[in-house]
Amino acid sequence: MTPGISRRRLLGGTAAAIAGLAVADLLPTLAERAVAGAPAILKPLPPEWFIDYGSNAEMRWDSVDPRVYATPQARLFVRDHTSTPTIDPSTYRLRILGDGLVRSEGVELTLGQLRALPQVTLTSVHECTGNGRSFFATQQGKAASGTQWKLGAVGTVVWHGVRLRDVLDAVGVRRDAVSVMATGLDPSYVSGGVDYGPVRRPFPISKAYDDALLAWSMNGGDLLPDHGFPLRLVLPGWVGIGSIKWLGSLEVSTSEQTSPWSTTWYNLDGRPLAANPVRSAFELPWGAQLPRRTVVLTGRSWSGAGPIAKVEISTDGGATWSRAELDRPRSDSAGTGHGWTRWAYRWTAPRPGSHELLARATDALGRTQPDVAAWNPNGYFFDAVVRHPVTVG
Ligand SMILES: Nc1nc2c(c(=O)[nH]1)N[C@H]1C(S)=C(S)[C@@H](COP(=O)(O)O)O[C@H]1N2
Ligand SMILES: [Mo]
């Protein structure tokens, strides 16, 4: 047994302890883990909650408790390009630089300086661009490259931190600034023999001044190392790659910026991906066994562009649709929530045997889920209605 594994065992089941700052001290350093061949992800990944892909892990929808709205950190999916770094919060600094600043020398901010700004809480869906990718193969007959996520590369998180616009106003940004490059402190990403440098992605200054956050907390606890401790960027509603973890620097520029994460990856038809599409999932095992009586089917739907307006269910392969009952809308201190919507639907199967359950959501902007998702080789944005098999009787 490697030291890395025993360390994970030690932490197993101590979810409460993991929420605390002191845990950073218990975790092995990157160098120790490299020697041990230890896992990229530090938190426990119990198989009843997660499907483990190595440096990525997805939440099992059948483990989601219908009564719990936000996704606990211990259960949230993880997507690491390399591995989770361990960062000392006492020496941590966020660097803000670039020709878009009033003071050309830039600034370095401590966590304490950031915490002194007005604090906000914002609930938003947190989702990987490739969520649902495996359905390109299993439902549409053509496999896309990348992690074969089912629908669990998503959660809803209650973030707490400061608005990026308040930070930028405090630092001083020029009126002609157009873009911000966020760079992580994790190891450089190397693939196919090419070193692409640290994970980084630019976003428009308009998003910085709209609803972007710098968050140090999820669901009331400190960020876990895997989720960006001690500070991450949050771009609500946008593709997960935009929300850079272990945020090291923000470069504010008066010209457009690019990185491989906006041009080579997370780009469709020449445009960097921004708001996530509409998706839905049942809180059921794949191939669930259902009793032969009326059951309440529950699930959740979400959109990166706005609240969910309607969810329809089909239990006859898409021939007919009926409305699901939606949970009440939510809001928080930073305004209307960007979280998902829970729903429920009472169903009595007409006969025993195999059935397919379909859920299709529409958001407040009228965006909905197609029957077939648009093909792309990297398998982004699988937003088609997923056909969920169950057996009755
Ligand atoms: N620094 C850094 N930030 C990152 C990543 C990463 O590998 N390194 N992965 C991105 C991707 S692709 C996603 S989907 C989300 C995943 O966030 P989570 O692991 O906290 O769920 O983080 C994003 N931010
Ligand atoms: Mo992602």
From TrEMBL:
It comes from the Bacteria. Residues 292-381 form the Moybdenum cofactor oxidoreductase dimerisation domain. Residues 81-261 form the Oxidoreductase molybdopterin-binding domain. Transmembrane segments: none annotated. InterPro entries: Ig_E-set, MoCF_OxRdtse_dimer, Mopterin_OxRdtase_euk, OxRdtase_Mopterin-bd_dom, OxRdtase_Mopterin-bd_sf, TAT_signal. Keywords: Metal-binding, Molybdenum, Oxidoreductase. Its cofactor is Mo-molybdopterin. This is Sulfite oxidase. It comes from Nocardioides panacisoli.
